[in-house]
Amino acid sequence: MKVLLTGSTGQIGRGVLEKSLESPDITSIVVLTRRELPEAIRNHPKLSVIILKDFTSYPPEVLKELIDVDACIWSLGVLAANLTFEEKHRITIDYTFAFLEAWLKSKDTIPESQKKPARFLFVAGHFTRRNQELKIWFKAEQRLLGGRAQNQLIEYAEQRSSSLELFIINPAFVYTGFSLLSYLFPSISGELLSNAMLDVAVHGGELQILDNTALKARGVTGTHKKM
Fold first, then answer.
1. Alpha-carbon gap, residue 107 to 163, rounded angstroms
2. What is the DSSP letter of 123?
3. pLDDT digit string (tens) for 95-145?
4. Phi, psi (deg, nearest 5) at residue 72
């Protein structure tokens, strides 16, 4: 199976990349990134790295790499507090849909008899809000944008149900090692989250939206738990 990852320099993306490299189910990994990965990782035989400065534009040589990608785990976070609303919108929504359009278009070259739905995992977050009418006082722009992206993705996938399988990943606080905060707030370990996402990427599932509880359960029961 060929998987594409974004956000691989962040905490969540880095964890799922490491698990992907270990997984016998994943035979090929493409990392889409704006900067180079550490040398120790980028030389792995299963890994191809595409450095793309503009995530809204996909040249022919990149489209060629996307044709046989079976699943994508999209984990581009918006953490910097000094970003403008326009920059946050560009990263959260514009980048996401530009990729989806390019990815699905690349598969037009596949014969109909060989086509299967592309599987897209969108990593949002526990605190994003799909209800755009809510009054939110803490990180309102970011949380509402994440919710808006989910709403638009659900509608987009419904219109393309024969070619796209959508899964929305909503983890709570993600921690590695020991964390006192994990006892105080809704949380999930990075290992369990990576297990869960890879299991969904490989096998799909009935739940379209996986909250923290569902992710913890999938991380424990999924086939990737013993990697």
1. 9
2. E
3. 999 999 999 999 998 998 889 999 999 998 666 666 666 676 666 567 777
4. -130, 130
> Where do the domains of the chain lie?
2-221
Q: Say which amino acid occupies 89.
A: H
Cβ 123 vs Cβ 75: under 8 Å: yes
Residue 141 near residue 85 (C-beta atoms within 8 A): yes
Cα 23 to the center of its chain, rounded Å: 17
Q: Residue 143: which of 92, 210, 196 has the closest Cα?
A: 92
Encoding tokens for residue 156? 């987009």
Q: 17 or 172: which carries more pLDDT confidence?
A: 17
Please give the distance of CA 208 from its chain centroid, rounded to a whole number: 13
Judge contact between 117 and 163, C-beta under 8 A.
yes
Q: How do residues 172-210 score in pLDDT, each as one tens digit?
A: 887 887 666 666 777 899 999 999 999 999 999 999 999
Give the Cα separation of 100 and 88 in Å (integer).
18
Helix (H) or strand (E) holding 173: strand 173-175
| pLDDT of 161 strictly over 60 | yes
Q: What is the CATH number of domain 2-221?
A: 3.40.50.720
170, burial (CB in 10 Å: exposed 0-12, middle 13-18, buried 19+): buried
Residue 41: Cβ within 10 Å count: 16
CB 136 within 8 A of CB 129: yes
